[in-house]
Amino acid sequence: MTFVAAVVAVGLAPMVSAAPAHAADPAWNGVYSLKRFAASKTGTSLAARQAEPDFSDDYTFTTSCDGGTCVATVIDGPKPANPTLPQPPRYTWEAGSWVHRYDWQWDCWQGAGVPKVWRPATSVATYAPQGDGTLKGVWRTTIDGGPCDGTVVMNVAAYPVTPPAPGWNLS
Length: 171
Prior knowledge:
By secondary structure, this protein is mostly beta strands. It has one domain (15-160). It has one helix spanning 46-49, and strands at residues 15-16, 28-36, 55-66, 69-76, 90-94, 97-108, 117-129, 135-143, 150-160. The chain has an eight-stranded antiparallel beta barrel with strand order 2-3-4-5-6-7-8-9. β6 (97-108) and β7 (117-129) form a beta hairpin.
């Protein structure tokens, strides 16, 4: 199972804002490392009880605001292993958080050599900007039917990836 989240690139410095209604539109721009805390997931599904390490990937986000709606879209990052995840991921600004709602097929793993069972799932991932430039939230999934029927809930976070300082050559 792979979870994909979004990040946006603008210039050299990443920017996340939770602007008041009278200020500029909110933005999630730049490269972010999205971490999923899978080792401490909870829920009612068999999948919630399966051991899994925390994992992270880097994504680039860009934000556009049109007609009062702001959407942060992932424009670069690894492709998900699960082909049913909607691409590209899009997060809508709602009540002070970036929210990604999507329907997909959960690929229920039941052990080595056992074929995966695919079932409909609905997920909501929410990332709230923090004062230190990170985002923190929760990814909640409801799986409909099959051996993994139930819920999976895990904490998530997004950390800005700072580009190297000018003059440094890391190659």
